[in-house]
Amino acid sequence: MTNELNRGNRHGADALVGHYACAGESDTGALGAVPSLKERLRQAFTEASIDPDQLTPAQMAGLDQLHLGGRGASYRLLELGELSGVTRMLDVGCGTGGASRLLAQALGCKVVGVDIIPAFIDVARWLSQACGLSTQTDFLCADAAELPLASDSIEALWCQHALLNMPDRDAVLNEWRRVLIPGGLVLLHEVVAGTNPEPLSLPVPWARQPEHSHLESRQALEQRLQHAGFRQLRLIDVTEQALSWRRHHGRREQQAAAIEEVELPGAQLLFGDDFTTMGRNLQANLANDRVRVIQGVWRRAVPSSHE
């Protein structure tokens, strides 16, 4: 794990780990040991009178469906992919493993999740164990630009809101092509730059400083995927759905705060005290077309020898 992280630092991992510092491992300061992310989350479930070792998808939703649109958006991407007979998938930038578990349950396949944040991998393994999916999911702490997987070993690749954290996307896409079997699919749910050239309102969930946000336009991303050897099958813009979802959740967050409602553990424990500000800024960026959201499916080109 340490070697993987050291290699990842060449691809901007330091900045990424720094952004998610509040999700870091235990540390010792003047007041003693600070609990790890997993310890804090387990305590939060306990305080909500929920057994942290016996969890349902609904109880985990605030922790493992961190992308715009939540579980609904994941199911729509799954429908868009039209997957059939897949036995082994890769979830890139898996975070706490929500999509990996959703895919394993929906498709009955084995899913490998990869993320560069050690604390997220720790939580992902625990949550899979707690909901009975540990035998169908496996989680690796690694850089997406240097995947610890054999070539031609993955049938379909899933990625939600992760490329925006990856400065060397060409290296990442080359790895995707390497690990996918010929004809393998990429299912992508991504935030892209909008048509409004104004600077982003920050912080947002993926960045606190401009230099840590690696957005590009939809057209640039399409071209990059094509050059990397992927053929586009389907692509839809889901910005309006994402904005509607963000507005709805913003109202719910305000209502819960107003009545001091005890909620299930959620994203604030992962992103820190400024998560509410992040959500508000993300909504403004969507509304002002500084960012857009797409879902699409691409196929790895099949060499002529396979035709």
From TrEMBL:
Q: Which domain of life is it from?
A: Bacteria
Q: Which UniProt keywords apply?
A: Methyltransferase, Transferase
Entry annotated with the keyword Transferase: yes
InterPro entries from the xrefs? Erg6_SMT_methyltransf, Methyltransf_11, SAM-dependent_MTases_sf
Q: Which GO terms describe its biological process?
A: methylation
Query: What does the record give under GO molecular function?
Result: S-adenosylmethionine-dependent methyltransferase activity
Methyltransferase type domain location is 90-187
Record keyword Cell membrane present:
no
Q: What is this protein called?
A: Methyltransferase domain-containing protein
Q: Which organism is it from?
A: Halomonas cupida
